[in-house]
Amino acid sequence: MDYQIKKEVQLLKEIHVFSPDFPFPPGFYIGSLPPKGYRVVDKMDDELIAVDDTAISERIKRFAFTLFIWETAVILTLMLIFHKTIIKYIKKEENIKNFLELMLLTTTHKLGNFLSIYRVNIEILKERCKTRALERLENAYSIMEKDFSIATRTLKKLSVRKKEPKDINIKNKLLEILSLFGQILKDKNLVLSLSDSTVRIDEEDLENILFTVVENVVKYSQSKIHIKLCSDKENVYIFLRDDFKDVSKGSGVGLKLVEFIVNQYGGELITRAKKDFLTVILLPKNYHRFSIKR
User: Fold this and answer.
1) How far apart are the C-alpha atoms of 181 and 134, rounded to whole Å?
2) What Cα–Cα distance (Å) separates residue 1 from each residue in 6, 7, 10, 61, 236?
């Protein structure tokens, strides 16, 4: 406080030089005999400058209180503005999310109608003829239907934001997925090396991962497919090798989706295109991020 008083006294002295009649503020005195309770802090010519410490202290307290009120008002105003901005942003994001969900539902509805018509046409053809081409057509429909079912369930799960991880034997699920491609795989050299490997994961996520990578190797391989499943104490490894030559044919969207899901479980997706195309999926056996429903 003494430093502040010295600054004010210096300012008052300068004012007094230019305007001797300027009254000193309450708590300050200039003259030859300071009132009782005042403390001399400086002098100017033959006059003393004194201050009332109690009055100065009260003035500083009032100033500090006023400053606190204003600072509080400013902070509350900024918080209100920030709150309004956040609410506006959240509502905007919610509107975009609802719009995207509506678009996705519309798209899946139209695709569902298309698949229904496709199924009716196949049933009509089956009544009239029995050919290998028809069998392949029906198999292609089954694959499309499974792909559509997985995509639809994934979209629904995105809206509720809930995963239900459980212990699943990947070997059984992988064989189930491969059975869907049985008709197409008849024309390819498929080599399987599968060991029982259990991982804790949401079943629909696992289906999405396996269906996408299997569909890729079946669709783009020329004649050879080698799938290996193994594990160690901490991780499960899935290797898919095929003689897919032209990498540019694929859009890469499927593998991006797989990578996104695998990363959610602390896993990793690795691809390599050299003599053959190699896809490696690493999944931790026990990843607890989704152990609680959300």
Assistant:
1) 15
2) 9, 10, 14, 11, 71
Judge whether 125 lies within some domain: no
Number of H helices, E strands in the chain: 7, 10
Domains contained in the chain, number: 2
CB burial of 248-262 (b: ≥16 within 10 Å; e: otherwise) equals eeeeeebbeebbebb
- 167-198 pLDDT, tens digit per residue, is 999 999 999 999 888 878 888 899 999 999 99
Express each pLDDT in 210-228 by its tens digit: 988 998 888 888 889 999 9
> Rounded to 5 degrees, what are φ and ψ at 187?
-90, 5
Q: Are 198 and 172 in contact (CB under 8 A)?
A: no
239 residue type, one letter:
F
Distance CA 2, CA 41 (A): 9
* Residue located via tokens 């959300």: 294
Separation between Cα atoms, residue 135 and residue 122, nearest integer Å: 10
Residue 181 DSSP one-character state: T
Of 35, 60, 80, which residue sits at a domain end? 80
